[in-house]
Specification:
- By secondary structure, the protein is of the alpha/beta class.
- The protein has 4 domains: 37 residues, no CATH class; 168 residues, FAD/NAD(P)-binding domain, CATH 3.50.50.60; 169 residues, Polyamine Oxidase, Chain A, domain 2 (Alpha-Beta Complex); 83 residues, de novo design (two linked rop proteins), CATH 1.20.1440.240.
- Helices cover 35% and strands 20% of the residues.
- The strands form 8 sheets. The chain has a 5-stranded parallel beta sheet, with helices on one face.
- A hairpin with a 5-residue loop joins strand 21 and strand 22.
- Helix 2 runs parallel beside helix 9, helix 2 runs parallel beside helix 17 and helix 11 crosses helix 16.
- The longest helix has 23 residues.
- 42% of the residues are buried.
- The site of flavin-adenine dinucleotide has 41 residues, from helix 2, strand 15, strand 20 and helix 17.
Length: 530
């Protein structure tokens, strides 16, 4: 459909459908028109007709809580937010030079990064299809820049492959594809797949294998200029006398398999990990700050909620001022609670037994991030690595190179670990100093000459030691989803839960926002019934 005089534009049509049928109809229409298959976001919520004077108390000033407050206030509700921390944003957070952070167990770190440098302990990348987050980033003036997710020139390392030596992703991935293509070609040639594939498809598949796997005319993946086009050269093409390129040796297929490069290749195909990805200019915490600018007057900081009580007349929330110790009550008609489940589980509350059971049923994952400030960008200057990740089988799991200020002079922070599972727990069990030492020892595998030499200082966050989440993110499984999810998201008389844990986009800011929109839309309907 073309935009123009006398014609209805696509946007006008969608707006009309949205007004008539609500967000679900709009979403369906967009999908039918070939749009939005990547997101359930259909625009900000439509909360018309709030009763004058009706009030909502929001617990937690993370993104879910602040969006709920922003939209409910816009709809006419009297809104107040109680937030445990002195800062808004929740898991949306960046640590800068001068910040201090105290984890459970009492260890305090004072961050020593140079001005402008930061560690994003939690969220760090935004997929292009997280339309809700992108929508509000635009509305609230958050500048975004590309997050370099995929770097062929970064490394993969596995202790059991290549004698423990890292190799470029490009080389291992090309050899994996070439090796698989050659084997599949052989299976076809030996008629092993004749029952599985039609004759005309066989020809097309052979052609695809030749092209995708860089096979030669004999259907072999070999050391030649064809394989070098994917995996790189021993001597790259140049000018003049020695301009002719020399191909590189291909790896032993056993090592290629043992490197588990296929895991990294599959990781990049994961829908949430596909390019294009973004990050805010200046640190992920810029998003929390921008949301906070919209609702700051509504927030009571240092307010640790200790009790949630609802009855026919409304909701009473008891909270403790963490700086003075004073205990107070706050009253409202309704409540949106975005407190992470592990913390909420420890709060005294009279929610329905089914909801209490749901809150208890969902464990949280752990992860550890470590930022290492280096004197110079040796990964750029010495290795031509600009952003992206080098993966390892060691506990640190990966190191990730900064995506901002490329080619810059002076110190820069690289992510020295993003560990989960066992590795995450091992790092979390260490002191912050031991974590840095481990990150330096393990990360040196990629950059042995520079890693320790250029190191200046570091900071780490172990998420199971974060007092206000007690973990990284909610970990649903099929059984808990079946038994508890619908209860967890249902309005429980006057209280509704929201947050990443109340979504199918778990551990993404998008999930927190989509959950928030859904929760307040249903709470609004409930309020209109009251
Ligand atoms: C390591 C890590 C990596 C991640 N990577 C990404 C990523 O790359 N991209 C992405 O989009 N998402 C990522 N996420 C997920 C993202 O951070 C979350 O989904 C999102 O920020 C959750 O928002 P929320 O509002 O649901 O919860 P939160 O941000 O946790 O907000 C909850 C709020 O409740 C407050 N609170 C807690 N207890 C109390 C209490 N007793 N009283 C009052 N207030 C209380 C907390 O202080 C907090 O402010 C990552 C998360 C982690 C931990």
């Amino acid at each position: 459909m073309q935009a123009g005089a006398g014609k209805t534009t696509r946007r006008e049509l969608l707006t009309a459908i949205g007004m008539m049928g609500g967000t679900f109809a709009l979403y369906q229409a967009m999908t039918t028109m070939g749009h939005a298959a990547e997101t359930q976001f259909a625009g900000p919520p439509n909360l018309k007709g709030a009763r004058p004077g009706a009030s909502v108390i929001v617990l937690g000033a993370g993104l879910a809580g602040m969006l709920a407050a922003f939209e409910l206030r816009k709809a006419g509700y009297k809104v107040r937010i109680l937030e445990y921390q002195a800062r808004a944003g929740g898991r949306n957070w960046s640590l800068y030079g001068g910040d201090t952070y105290t984890e459970l167990g009492g260890a305090t770190q004072k961050v020593g990064f140079a001005p402008g440098n930061y560690l994003n302990p939690g969220p760090w990348r935004i997929p292009h299809h997280h339309r809700t987050l992108l929508h509000y980033c635009k509305q609230f003036g958050v500048a975004l820049e590309p997050f370099i997710q995929f770097n062929h020139n970064a490394f993969v390392h596995h202790a059991d492959a290549f004698g423990g030596r890292p190799v470029h992703f490009r080389e291992a991935a090309a050899d994996f594809e070439g090796g698989v293509a050659e084997l599949l070609g052989k299976a076809i040639d030996q008629k092993a797949l004749d029952q599985e594939i039609k004759a005309e498809d066989k020809e097309m598949l052979l052609e695809a294998l030749r092209g995708w796997g860089m096979l030669d005319q004999d259907m072999k993946y070999a050391r030649n200029l064809r394989s070098a086009e994917h995996r790189g050269y021993e001597r790259p093409p140049g000018g003049g006398v020695n301009g002719a390129p020399i191909p590189s040796n291909i790896f032993d297929f056993h090592d290629v398999l043992a490197s588990q490069v296929w895991k990294n290749m599959a990781f990049f195909m994961n829908h949430e990990m596909q390019t294009t990805m973004f990050q805010p200019v200046g640190g992920m915490g810029m998003i929390g700050k921008a949301f906070a600018r919209q609702v700051e007057p509504l927030i009571t900081h240092n307010a640790k909620v200790t009790k949630i009580f609802q009855d026919r007349s409304g909701v009473k929330v008891t909270y403790k001022d963490t700086s003075t110790g004073a205990v107070s009550d706050a009253h409202a008609d309704f409540c949106v609670c975005t407190i992470p489940l592990g913390v909420l589980n420890q709060i005294d509350k009279n929610l329905s037994p089914k909801l209490q059971a749901a809150i208890q049923a969902v464990p949280y994952s752990n992860s550890v991030k470590i930022g290492l400030e280096m004197r110079r960008r040796f990964w750029e200057e010495d290795y031509s690595i600009y952003g992206g990740h080098s993966f390892t089988s060691q506990d640190i799991s990966l190191i990730s190179y900064p995506n901002n200020h490329l080619f810059g002079d002076g110190p820069a922070v690289l992510l020295g670990a993003f560990a989960s599972g066992l590795g995450g727990y091992r790092l979390a069990g260490m002191t912050p100093e031991q974590r840095i030492e481990t990150a330096l020892a393990q990360g040196s595998i990629f950059h042995p000459d520079s890693y320790r030499k250029e190191f200046m200082n570091g900071a780490s966050v172990a998420w199971n030691r974060v007092p206000w989440t007690l973990g990284c993110c909610a970990r649903w499984n099929e059984d808990t989803r079946k038994e508890h999810y619908q209860t967890l998201v249902a309005v429980d008389d006057r209280v509704v839960l929201a947050g990443e844990h109340a979504s199918y986009v778990g551990c993404w800011m998008e999930g927190a926002l989509l959950s928030s929109i859904d929760a307040i839309t249903r709470l609004h309907a409930r309020a209109l019934e009251a």
